[in-house]
Amino acid sequence: MSHQGGEFIDQWVISERNVRSNKKKKKRQQEHQQQQKQQYRKGMKRTSSEESVKRQNQQQWHATVHEPLPLPKQRPSESYTVVAHNRIDTDSPVLVNNQPSVPNQIETNLDKYDIRTPLFNTNQTNNWTIDYGTGSSSANDHNRHPIVSHDHHCTLPQSQSVNVELNTRHPLLFNVVQQDSRKVSSISSEEGGLGSTESDALLSGSRATSNQNKTASINILDSDIGRLNTTDDYDHTRRKRKKGYMASACCLCIAFSECFRRLFCFIWRKKAIKPRDVHICSSELKSTNEYPLNIVRNQKYNIFTFLPIVLFNQFKFFLNLYFLLMACSQFIPSLKVGPIFTYWAPLGFVLGVTLIREAIDDLLRYKRDKAVNSECYTKITRHEGNQRIPSAKIKVGDLILVDKNQRVPADMVFLRTSEKNGACFIRTDQLDGETDWKLRLATSPTQELDNNDAIFEMDAFIHAEEPRRDIHSFQGKFVNNSTNKETPLSIENTFWANTVVASGTAVGIVIYTGPETRSMMNNNEPRSKVGLLDYEVNELTKLLFAAVVILAFAMICLKGFSGYWYIYWFRYVLLFSYIIPISLRVNLEMGRVAYCQMIQRDMEIMGTLARTTTIPEDLGRIAYLLTDKTGTLTKNEMIFKKIHFGRMSYTTEYFEEVTAILRAYYNPRQVANAQISNYQTHRRENSNASTSSFTLERRQHMRVDSYEVDRDIVYRVQQSVLAIALCHNVTPAHENHFKNDGKDSMHIDQGSSTVSIPMKDMAITYHASSPDEVALVQWTEKVGLTLVFRDIKNIKLRNPFGHLMDFEILDLFPFSSETKRMGIIIKDLNTHEIVFYLKGADTVMSSIITYSDWLQEQCDNMARSGLRTLVVAKKILDEEQYNDFQERYNQAKCNMNDRSARIRAVLATLEKDMELLCLTGVEDRLQDGVATTLKGLQDAGIKLWMLTGDKLETAISIAKSSQLVKKMQEVYVLNESGKKLKTRSEVHSELNNFHRKSDFPLVIRGEDLELCMKYYSAEFMDLATQCSAVVCCRCSPTQKAEVVKMIQNRTGKRACAVGDGGNDVSMIQTANVGIGIVGKEGQQASLAADFSILQFSNIYRLILLHGRYSYKRSATLSQFIIHRGLIISTLQAIFSSAFYFASVPLYQGFLMIGYATFYTMFPVFSIVLDKDVSPRLVMKFPELYKLMKGRSLSYKTFFIWVLISIYQGSVIMYGSILLFNDEFIHVVAITFTAVILTELLMLALTVRTWHWLMIVAELISFSTYLLTLILAPQYFDEKFIQSRAFLWKVTLMTLVSCLPLYVLKFLHRKIAPPSHHKLN
């Protein structure tokens, strides 16, 4: 043993001797004090007995049978009980009038007793009974030693009784209790302290000396009883006051607790959400603070909660709590086993890194919130005009003016707009994820006013429903008290917060603010995410702690339970605490930072950001991936791909022929030329199409499939393109809206059919609620029929030659997921023809149109190509038919009961026997590499869910085109009929049907999903998680988050959520891993996510490569660090056993710090550079991800490392005992050197792919240890470590500890090689 090690043992032996010597001294002092107490008690007892006998001899007892005993005046039928309670040690003397008295002795002269001084020290009861007027007496004593003999009793007048009871079982207490009974009894005593002979002698002596005084000096009893009454009143008052004080104190405590409880409940209360009435002029009134402030807050902490919450999140894990307790124990001198900084420095480093990281993240959130809350808006007031106020100061009832391209600050009802038609478009991409514009209509009573100031002249209010999460519906009414008229309000009359005004300016009245807005109610509170690896390490830590406790207890059992054994037990716990090394947390945190840096520097996925460093390993544990559709899987760019007219179809390459047909159809010169009349032979009989010419030269430029272009093809092409250009809900927008200053224009025949058209090329943008409608209108513009104007009542088209065609909108039937079609009734203002156009899905249109033998076949062909199909049809109406329909339709709309059913019945009379025009195919362009990425993720064992707010048909089409669902694979649509499920039995029936086809991909609507999760959440999730893919359409942001939460809770596996819009923030924050895509919908999802990417295909490399590497590296790193601590604890246990179970550390604090830091830290940490498989193979074979899940860190691998550690520690320590028996004094140098070499060699055996930094780390660590041997002679004997025996024996121990493990590992790889070895 080294010199320093010998000093440790000597110091410990000396300290043990001192402790034992102090114990013996203390024990002798205690025995001496006990003897003194016993002697004192004996002397006091003798003195008390002598004085008691003396007083009894001097006491004169006078009792006469016939003479009455004077008593204080008492009322008849009253008796008194005197109770004395006492609890004193039987060996202690009793003080009587401040004089020592013998215990268990009673004197009848109560005047000599201080009633506040304990009288008796036994646990017996003494009953004294004085009987009046009966002439009888009795004495009752368990020991039969009465103080007053049986033949000497007292007779008292008035037949009154006094019952005096002395109870010595409790502290002294006198109670006087009134009794109704009249008794005659004698004075008795239990264990009076004197024998019967002694009492007889005393009484005889008393009678001999008291013959002349028969009047009985027992009158003193009268004064004693009076004193008892006075004392009793005093004690009763005192007890009453005490009880009053206690009751008052209890009442005050209860009152204060109730006040604090109510105050706490008031502060943290949740206000009841209820409908509200918002008056137009409420902004001019004083604020009542009835509604919350309009403040956006996404922070996790504030200045008061930051430190407590962060520390709680850290110490809720057993690993950190254990380190904290061990560090605190070093402040106790008797438990100190090493320098304090060896425990507090690593713990402080981990906590400091965590605090800094959380503070920076929350500071960034605060800055973003501050920017949003500081955005200024124009508030319209009656007296002060327009004012600029920040968003945070907007209140319910304020009239806010929102400019074009400005964010809506709160939920508002749309009152006025600068657009004359009273309509305005908004963008809702940050609310529901749809980039398409939504049409909003101003309320008619306010839109008809002359200006904004006229709003304040109205006596009106808005009745709004209670705040809800549903972003697709709203119920309210505008009540005008002046006219007593109510105008219904719906979703079309609202602006939700975080939407953007896309056209014109809008004035709205605020109805919901802050947390009551739809946007905030659909956002979840941000939470701190913890990786699955942390939970697993936490469980292993508990297991290791149990091992530490058991090992320490075993050492105590071997040492013996003598002295302060529990202190030694705790010292053993501290010595073996290296089994749970605190460096584990430090290395894991540093490793995660390294993983995130590798992700951000990967050139294959440029632009990827890791916004959190706590969960990179979870990327390697993903079991479910839930993704948004719009902007995530797709580019949100619809392209018109194909149109079919029955006998002919046109694709992108031949759209020019459609343009040629339309140009010929609308050519005015050919119409004027009467000599060319070829088209007259092509004109369909009874056709209302406008006349034009179709020349032979134009016909030769067209594609002809074994037949000529005849009048039917021309008619279908023209009518189909016209129907597509009219049947929609698209609004064009451009800068110079039909304004012509006379310059750069061309005049064509100023007749009724021509107008002056400006020749400037004006870029027209189209806005609609559906991107495929925009694609259709853009295609009509491309072929020559352009939409140039649209409002609520009119549509204007421009033909290929610049002529304007005016149409009036008579009725519009918008698209719904229930009807799956949309229609419009148009009146041509030139021909006054009324036409009903209808387009929709083939499933519903096939029963509406006349029979067609080609429709279903062509629909299937387009669907297999991944195109979204629409069937277009028309029906010509005369005036009488339309008027009849209009009358019935208006009646149905005015009906308040079952309105929707009545409307559908009226429309059904119109939607029949319609003429089929064409079939269109539109493609939603996917992002690059989406299909390959989804297929790779499925091969990796990850189940895919698509959650979208789009319609069912759109979702199915994207699922097939993206290969989420195979093109020829059948899907199961829950509630395929489309009827709304209402009852529990209906949901149960649908789930039973789904159970029979649970192996099919599932498609479900948001409303059906809500009912399934309400009634049968567990059953539904069990069935849905078995599906290969799930598509949820029409999902709200809250539903997306709930689905993610249900999957995580039900399966217990890691879920990843991917999105790109503000509507995906809740889903991203709820998921174990959130990935945001920076796209057209902004950066809200990207900022809220854990990882940010530029396109969806980056997920493949992020999850399969970086996720896999991060998990395997952290798992190996954790187990290696635990192995490093187990070796030291094994050495410590054997060392303590060899040295008589000494609870002293084997290595000093400096060596332990060096062992966990610069001796082994760099080689161990270099594991973060290890690669078990090359990146090329990982990307090529995604199945490797599935084979790896959860196997790198498990109880099996953990116990393997435990056995390895015990084996190596035992070999090193027992090898030192065997090989260095004569030099065992140098045990520190021997074992420490062997441990360092073993760790470096084990690392070399564990690494699978060498990196140059690993070699550098090995050399640096070994060189550092050699320098320590040379420069630290106080720890090592320089001559001893330079001997040959030391070198070859330490080398032999190292080889014996490592070589067998390498042989076993080699044999295992040959017998059962890993899967990736087969790929190599």
UniProtKB/TrEMBL annotation:
Residues 1087-1313 form the P-type ATPase C-terminal domain. Its EC number is 7.6.2.1. It is found in: Endomembrane system; Membrane. InterPro entries: ATPase_P-typ_cyto_dom_N, ATPase_P-typ_P_site, ATPase_P-typ_TM_dom_sf, ATPase_P-typ_transduc_dom_A_sf, ATPase_P-type_domA, HAD-like_sf, HAD_sf, P-type_ATPase_IV. Residues 1-79, 185-208 are annotated as: Disordered. It is a multi-pass membrane protein. Keywords: ATP-binding, Lipid transport, Magnesium, Membrane, Metal-binding, Nucleotide-binding, Translocase, Transmembrane, Transmembrane helix, Transport. It catalyses: ATP + H2O + phospholipidSide 1 = ADP + phosphate + phospholipidSide 2. The active site is at 628 (4-aspartylphosphate intermediate). Mg(2+) binds at residues 628, 630, 1060, 1064. One of its GO terms (cellular component) is trans-Golgi network. Its cofactor is Mg(2+). The keyword Transmembrane applies. Residues 279-343 form the P-type ATPase N-terminal domain. GO terms for molecular function: ATP binding; ATP hydrolysis activity; ATPase-coupled intramembrane lipid transporter activity; magnesium ion binding. Residues 20-29 have a biased composition (Basic residues). Belongs to the cation transport ATPase (P-type) (TC 3.A.3) family. Type IV subfamily. This is Phospholipid-transporting ATPase. It comes from Blomia tropicalis (Mite).
